[in-house]
Amino acid sequence: MGRITARRRVIRVRRGAQVAPRVDVLAVEEPLEMRVNGARLAVTMRTPGHDVELATGFLVSEGVLGRAEDLSTARYCAGTDADGRNTYNVLDLALAPHVAEPTRTSPRDFTISSACGVCGKDSIESVTTRSRFTVSDDPLTVDVDALLDLPARLREHQKIFATTGGLHAAALFDGRTGELRVVREDVGRHNAVDKVVGWALARDLLPLRGHILQVSGRASFELVQKAVMAGIPMLSAVSAPSSLAAELAADHGLTLAGFVRGESMVLYSRADRVVPDDDVQSNSGVRTYTEEQSRGAR
């Protein structure tokens, strides 16, 4: 299996011309070519590790997989470096006979960078893949304090970030019990989420009703899409969402919380799932953006 971190000699420079050589630890970024039934689908830049989860989670977001039985096998293909060692950078997923292959009417032979999960899509319409799950009817409610605690709980389990300072993370929490189900790290925020969803798929937990997806960075459009496709009713991020992310969350009835850190958060959609109720929220550190306010802020 590929390395997760790499060591490199660097020069650290401080104000006042203080120069010091040192060895730094970096997060590894390598390509993973994903194939479906032997045909190349996409290449993503990722941190090696949990590659099957990454690939299957990606296929959930593409609307291909929805249950563990939809996948027949997953295996690494031959791919060697200059020394003849397997790079473990080519993964082939064989779908079960009843599963339709991803459509290839538009080119999918592209590279997904570690910063973007939807590069190469032809249009916004093609990105909003129809999910086999719904989240709007999920009865989940979460206490304000419990939601505000999630970023710190996630940080406690970011082992590679603690060493490198260079990885995103995603965690899945049971919103009813507060149990931490899984944490995954990656150079790509969308990869970290795919790994979480892939973990859940392998255990036949989809749809993830009653769960919260906590991410370490901003809430982008593709992260909201991935949550909806996995049936997750609540997405919590320590940073800001994009306008398109907020729109998609509202359209699908997903609770989107941003700037979840310290003593406050901002709710962009389905604020009713975060308790206490509206007449107490003014004193709870929770601000709610209505749809009209959101439009006015653009």
TrEMBL record:
One of its GO terms (biological process) is Mo-molybdopterin cofactor biosynthetic process. Residues 289-298 have a biased composition (Basic and acidic residues). It is found in: Cytoplasm. SUPFAM superfamilies: Cytidine deaminase-like. GO terms for cellular component: cytoplasm. Keywords: Cytoplasm, Molybdenum cofactor biosynthesis. The active site is at C116. GO terms for molecular function: sulfur carrier activity; sulfurtransferase activity. InterPro entries: Cytidine_deaminase-like (IPR016193), FdhD (IPR003786). It comes from the Bacteria. Residues 278-298 are annotated as: Disordered. PANTHER family: FORMATE DEHYDROGENASE, SULFUR CARRIER PROTEIN FDHD. Required for formate dehydrogenase (FDH) activity. Acts as a sulfur carrier protein that transfers sulfur from IscS to the molybdenum cofactor prior to its insertion into FDH. HAMAP family: FdhD. Belongs to the FdhD family. This is Sulfur carrier protein FdhD. It comes from Gordonia aichiensis NBRC 108223. The lineage of its organism: Bacteria, Bacillati, Actinomycetota, Actinomycetes, Mycobacteriales. The gene is fdhD.
